[in-house]
Amino acid sequence: LRVVELTAEHHPAAFAxxxxxxxLPVHTALGFSTAHASVALRVVELTAQHHPAAFAHAERVGxxxxxxxALQFQTKHEAAALRVVELTAQHHPAAFAxxxxxxxLPVHTALxxxxxxxxxxxxxxxx
Length: 127
Description:
This protein has 7 helices and no strands. The protein has about 130 residues and is an all-alpha fold. The relative contact order is 0.14.
């Protein structure tokens, strides 16, 4: 978590840099930090602050947005998934009508993966 904070403080442009796979730091944090929800949540918040366009950025491999990754991989961490839903609604509302490479709209992804969390599922359905 300290590395994330230091990056934001000294090199905020890093939140907008994507390597060849097209994954921004927010994609990586949401897709691989299921055990570290506090890190994923902090990366989400800092991304909203330093590069809100990231919520409209699809990674290259599966054409997934941060919203898609949050709904699929943050199933045990309601706060991270819910915050991504809210920030996506604010910065890129068209994402709720967009299906990535797997053909699933966010509401379908939420139904498949957010079964234990009615709060996240309800919010996606509302949007």
